[in-house]
Amino acid sequence: VGASSTHAPPYRKVELQHKLRSTKQQRGVLSKFKMNFLRLALLLSCTAHVLGVKTVTYKTVNDQLLQLDIYSPSSFHVPTVSAACLTKLVDYCGHSYDSSHGSKCPDCINDHKKHLGLAGCPSNLTLLDSYYCGKTLDQAMESSNVNAMYPLLLYIHGGGWETGSKSIVPDYIRSVAERNRYVLASVQYRLTSEAEKWGGVDAITWPAQGDDCLDALRFLSRYAASFSIDTQRTACWGGSAGGHLCSYLAAYGALNSTETTLKVALPFYGPTNIIDMTLDIDPKVGCHIDHDAVGSFESKLCGSAKTNVSIGQIRHNENNSTAPWPHLVKLAQSVNPVMYIRQGVTPPMFVAHGTDDHIVPFKQSERLVDALQQAGIRHVFAAAEGCDHATEPRDCWQAVVEQAQQWVTSNL
Questions:
Q1: What is the DSSP letter of 79?
Q2: Do the beta carbons of residue 315 and residue 292 sit within 8 Å?
Q3: How many CB atoms sit inside 10 A of residue 24's CB?
């Protein structure tokens, strides 16, 4: 969802492959792996330095090979900044974007540099514009600490659980991570179209996609120190199928364990009740997809490639007690994030949806918001008036995206 950035941010890109193994097998290899981890990382670091990409291989829970792209703020080329320089920046340019200088903080720095000089400051303040504008002196000093632990922003791509790539991260995700020095991780999960890639199985069906995202977050939590991640400040952000997986990760992950508990989540225009997608279509808006068809994204997610049973058929047989309907109904219901929302457990969410969405009905996000409200979960619901599916064109979604960026910044 969204276009990939044409301007690469100052991140070190780490290709992180992790193979999922059973818990019993993991216990047997974990101690041995710990002894070899640093040695392996060092070896790969020396190799990848020439290529500009660092690849680390890791095995965890079961037998599928997955990947995470990690953009680590510990590798930012941040100039050394003295306390005197930071003091002048804060004193002269104000403590926040709401100061008298407003959003012109970079201009303020350049003006101060040009006319007054900044004691102890490096000659190039480009990076400082992003990292130190709008911060108090204490915050600025913390940002300049290379040993600091950083919030994690986990991005989950969309594509109907069928297409998409972890390599395509929208500009607005990259920019908020860069500006706030988050560890940004983009997760790969198994797609319904990739049966041959994953050992020639009949189909990649639910809950594989949800499990993969849970395993990715679990891995990052267990090895947080290796990536300078503050596990108390973690968020996910995703759109469409990625929005669904983000809300699922937030709701189900919080019930699962502390390793998969997020602080906040930002699901954008994602399905939340796949059985009722067709019923949720606003006739005034219409829909470009027959969600009830055997070849729909939702039907494939529930195994229609093997069973030839559609979501529409599952809905019509919700109360049918004869096989295979109870199993298929239960499977389809288990996809829905609203099933797992619990008072005092589910983290706060920023939910966004275009009112003219022709792919995922607007009511799907209303269902999620209703469940959050009934459970007393803090949330924001941003309705992008007149906007269709995805965050393009940008002028339509700009205000909502900026609101979401401010929200995640204030909550991490």
A1: P
A2: yes
A3: 7
Tokens of 54: 């660092």
Phi, psi of 96 (to 5 degrees): -160, 170
Residue with structure tokens 């908020």? 176
Q: What is the mean pLDDT for each group of 10 consecutive residues in the chain (412 residues)?
A: 35 38 40 36 28 36 71 52 56 43 47 49 43 50 62 96 92 88 89 82 86 89 85 97 98 92 98 97 96 97 95 97 97 97 97 97 98 98 95 86 96 94
* Cβ atoms of 354 and 387 closer than 8 Å: yes
Q: What per-residue string of b and e applies to 311-323 under the rule 16 or more CB within 10 Å gives b?
A: bbbbbebeeeeee
Q: Are 16 and 166 in contact (CB under 8 A)?
A: no
For residues 215-247, b (16+ Cβ closer than 10 Å) or e, as one string? bbbbbbbebbebbbbbbebbbbbbbbbbbbbbb
Q: Which DSSP string corresponds to 264-310?
A: EEEEES--S-GGGTGGG--TTT--SS-TTSTTSHHHHHTTHHHH---
Contact by Cβ (8 Å): 268, 357: no
Return d(Cα 67, Cα 54) in angstroms, integer: 13
Q: How far apart are CA 180 and CA 237, in angstroms?
A: 15
Q: CA 195, 199, 204, 208 torsion: positive or negative? A: negative
Could you tell me the two tokens for 327? 């199993």
- Provide the residue type at 20 as one letter: L
Sheet with 183-187: list strands edge to edge.
53-59, 12-19, 65-72, 183-187, 150-156, 229-239, 264-268, 349-354, 379-384
